[in-house]
Design a protein that fits this description.
With 188 residues, this protein is mainly α. It folds into 2 domains: 99 residues, no CATH class; 70 residues, no CATH class. 54% of the residues lie in helices and 2% in strands. It contains 6 helices and 2 strands, in the order αββααααα. It has a two-stranded antiparallel sheet. α1 packs across α3. The mean pLDDT is 83.
Length: 188
């Protein structure tokens, strides 16, 4: 029953915050720090935040508890934990992108202009495949924003001037990528 409870809880966590499932994890036995190094070599002390959701049930309330009700508690715990972890993730990412100047302010109405789209593509580091095609980027947004953005992208792709401007940005990104790759040290 413990395995079923845990599986149900994690399934609920990933449904509540699907982005968490795509993050690679490295398990550490010891440590209380999560420092990271910026591209310029600066070491930044990470802010380790404990994410906790607690649940308790008294023995007299648990006796006779149907398995479905027991698993509903697992789903609730997983959902709360997923929401809390996702919130902390976005707060941390927001602080880092603001600190290094990679954030792009979008208006209160949530509509993105083409100039803002260009700015995002200029600021975000882009890698390329062996054929020189940019790797696909992931943009995390609300379903409503996604619909508006897809509509805008389809419109921008029909405008030759906007297509040319995007090609200029991607050519600069390719130059930066090639320079990064040329600086890489190969080790045995």
């Amino acid at each position: 029953m413990k395995d079923t409870f845990n599986r149900t809880m994690f399934d609920s966590l990933w449904r509540a915050a699907p982005i968490l499932r795509r993050i690679r994890c490295h398990h550490f036995v010891e440590g209380s720090r999560n420092d990271y190094e910026q591209e310029d070599g600066t070491i930044v002390e990470g802010d380790q935040q404990l994410a906790r959701v607690e649940y308790s049930i008294k023995y007299e309330n648990a006796t006779g508890l149907r398995p479905e009700v027991f698993l509903e508690h697992a789903e609730e715990l997983g959902q709360k934990m997923g929401e809390r972890m996702e919130s902390q993730l976005f707060q941390t990412l927001g602080a880092i992108t603001d600190q290094i100047g990679n954030s792009v302010a979008i208006g209160q109405d949530g509509d993105m202009t083409f100039e803002q789209w260009l700015e995002i593509n200029t600021k975000v580091m882009t890698d390329f495949d062996d054929d020189g095609e940019p790797h696909t980027k992931h943009l995390v947004c609300t379903p409503e924003f996604q619909k508006r953005l897809i509509t805008s992208l389809n419109e921008w792709e029909r405008d030759p001037e906007k297509v040319a401007a995007m090609k200029v940005v991607m050519a600069k990104q390719k130059e930066a990528y090639d320079a990064r790759e040329a600086r890489r040290r190969m080790v045995d």
